[in-house]
Write a structure and sequence with these properties.
- The N terminus is likely disordered.
- It is built from 18 helices and no strands.
- With 464 residues, it is mostly helical.
- Among the domains are: 120 residues; 165 residues, Glycosyltransferase (Alpha/alpha barrel).
- The protein is globular and about 55 Å long.
- The structure holds zinc ion.
- Zinc ion binds next to helix 2.
Amino acid sequence: MSEVSPLIFARGQGYSVSEDFCPCRAAVEMGENMSKRLKLISATDAEMEERSFPNPYPDWDQGVLTSNSGADVGYNEPLDAEGKVSTAFQNKVQNKIKDLLQQMEEGLKTADPHDFSTYTGWTGIALLYLQLHRVSNEASHLQRALDYVKRTMRILNGRKVTFLCGDAGPLAVGAVVHHKLNNTADSRDCLSRLLQLQRSVLSVDSEMPDELLYGRAGYLYALLYINKEIGADTVDEGTITKVVTAIIESGKNMSAEQKKMDRCPLLYEWHKKQYIGAAHGMAGIYYMLMQPGAKVQPDMLSEVVRPSIDYVRHKRFRSGNFPSSLSNESDRLVHWCHGAPGVIHMLLMAHKVFKEEKYLKEAIECADVIWQRGLLRKGYGICHGTAGNGYAFLSLYKVTQDKKYLYRACKFAEWCLGYGTHGCRIPDRPYSLFEGMAGAIHYLSEMEKPEESCFPAFELVPVN
Ligand SMILES: [Zn+2]
């Protein structure tokens, strides 16, 4: 695909480039545009071909571990004979992490000094160091996280409220880092500033969307993250309920407006489009509403959330992948932000909450699509890259304990070990958590304790 800058492209489409212009949306719109052109010259295989690399790895072979034929041994590498991630692979990953961390630190010297966000800026780097501290217990990582948190505190701008793109990210991560270092006063200060943001989130006539990147669900995540990391009730239930209610009311209003109350009681739009994926769409919003910490009442979950999930499920492609929006009918994007790698998390949570096999079955089909089409030419990042797609396998592994998914997660990590060698597109923020190198390092670091893996700024609790 030609290297069209999102900005040039956006102008070409006739909408203005606002400050909340999102590269994920560019990906979808650009995809739709490309697709129209491609339809004239080739079949869909070519489109898929150019978005992902053909997966070069053999899939998990159930027979290998029990087989006595010596010839097959080693087929399921990098898992060892017990089905654990082998020590040799762990060492390779650790060495690569060291190497990439150094490259990242060097590269960050030229990064935008004003970008405090989790998505592309300094808070994302702080989160990476928190993760490295979590898996290694090394104090120096926590100190690095603090350095980056301090940097963000000077440049917050009060414009947005979410964890990924707004002030809530740095404030929530700041509260957690200070808490871990026993800086109680600083932690409380971050927390109280975080809670002050709720005014604009709760305002009914605000133009605020509900999705994860710029909307209410992204603020809700910040509150739930605090309670997970610092302790239940650090943010009181009343506050969480108010935010949850605002999200539900907004979805009901949109559904009524579109006369879809019988089919999809909670309907959401972002920039006038009904997106499905985790970043801008309904999968991300429903996923947050189903979190145990959100304390949505069981009758509300079954009467309002569940039929909405089922409505979205019916938009599934035959391949098992999901469209980027309700009106989009071409099966192209396999990203966390748009497609199966984001929707799978909603399905796994629905399986946990509603205890129906159909959700798990479709999650497994998502994983198959991701295995086939998930090694992305867009790069190794979390949002629309191979690392974000690898998290789908880790989440499915945590639910099923099926080694097949641990194996697939390792193979996507193996792909990330070749960072920069596949000729992928270079992202705009090449060292950031959601677009670039920090995200790949975050994913690689999960190989040490895959049972405890956690998609950053999204997953909250182990699903099983
Ligand atoms: Zn994306």
